[in-house]
């Protein structure tokens, strides 16, 4: 199960991130699109060293090596920009990306470990962002089995089981965590459901 940071700052965010890792979070995507390189570095400095290998960097990729981060995420736009492709990284990293259609997902190169496919449901965090097609049906046309497909968009405790039953390999949470008055409790609930399905 993956958690993505809220794009804007959240009260006690670093404390919550630490607690999420202590509760067993495996991957946290750092997505702060408005952060400058300095702001990103300041944010990363606050995350304990022991959790740095569990971070996935969405922007300011050049900071990854300095902070011991070996996971890089490419937005759809960045992936299609040859100047920002995985090929330009000399240090071995693991790569993920974002897709918004099964055609796009199926066409990915093998260097991507996993890809978000979204939106599966009506977004919790982005107002007016909703599916334009049934991704459960679309997933039946999957031909790319080298890359894991991760469900994103409107994922919460009530639809995790349905999502995983419909052939998504994993789930990513954003709004269901950060828009909740108790993010840790919500994470533990979602984690319990996801783990019970995978057993």
In words, what does this structure look like?
Helix content is 29%, strand content 17%. The longest helix is centred in the C-terminal third of the chain and has 16 residues, at 183-198. The protein has eight helices and eight strands. The model has no long low-confidence stretch (mean pLDDT 92). It is α/β, with parallel strands linked by helices and 199 residues long. The chain has an eight-stranded parallel sheet with strand order 3-2-1-8-7-6-5-4. The two termini are 14 Å apart. The chain has a single domain, classed as Aldolase class I (TIM Barrel, Alpha-Beta Barrel), CATH 3.20.20.
Helices and strands, with pairings:
Layout: E1 2-4, H1 13-22, E2 27-30, H2 37-45, E3 55-57, E4 71-74, H3 76-79, E5 94-99, H4 102-106, E6 112-117, H5 135-138, E7 148-151, H6 160-165, E8 170-173, H7 175-178, H8 183-198
Parallel strand pairs: 1-2, 1-8, 2-3, 4-5, 5-6, 6-7, 7-8
């Amino acid at each position: 199960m993956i958690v993505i940071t809220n794009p804007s700052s959240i009260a006690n965010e670093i404390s919550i991130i630490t607690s999420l890792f202590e509760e067993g979070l495996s991957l946290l995507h750092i997505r702060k699109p408005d952060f400058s390189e300095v702001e990103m570095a300041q944010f990363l400095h606050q995350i304990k060293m022991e959790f740095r290998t569990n971070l996935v960097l969405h922007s300011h990729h050049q900071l990854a090596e300095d902070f011991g981060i070996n996971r890089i995420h490419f937005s759809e736009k960045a992936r299609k920009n040859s100047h920002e492709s995985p090929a330009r990284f000399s240090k071995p990293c693991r790569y993920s990306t974002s897709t918004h259609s099964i055609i796009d997902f199926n066409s990915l190169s093998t260097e991507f470990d996993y890809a978000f496919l979204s939106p599966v449901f009506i977004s919790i965090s982005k107002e007016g962002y909703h599916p334009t097609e049934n991704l459960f049906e679309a997933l039946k046309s999957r031909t790319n089995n080298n890359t894991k497909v991760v469900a994103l968009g409107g994922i919460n405790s009530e639809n995790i089981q349905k999502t995983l039953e419909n052939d998504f390999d994993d789930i990513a949470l954003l709004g269901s965590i950060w828009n909740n008055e108790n993010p840790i409790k919500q994470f533990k609930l979602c984690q319990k459901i996801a783990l019970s399905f995978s057993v």
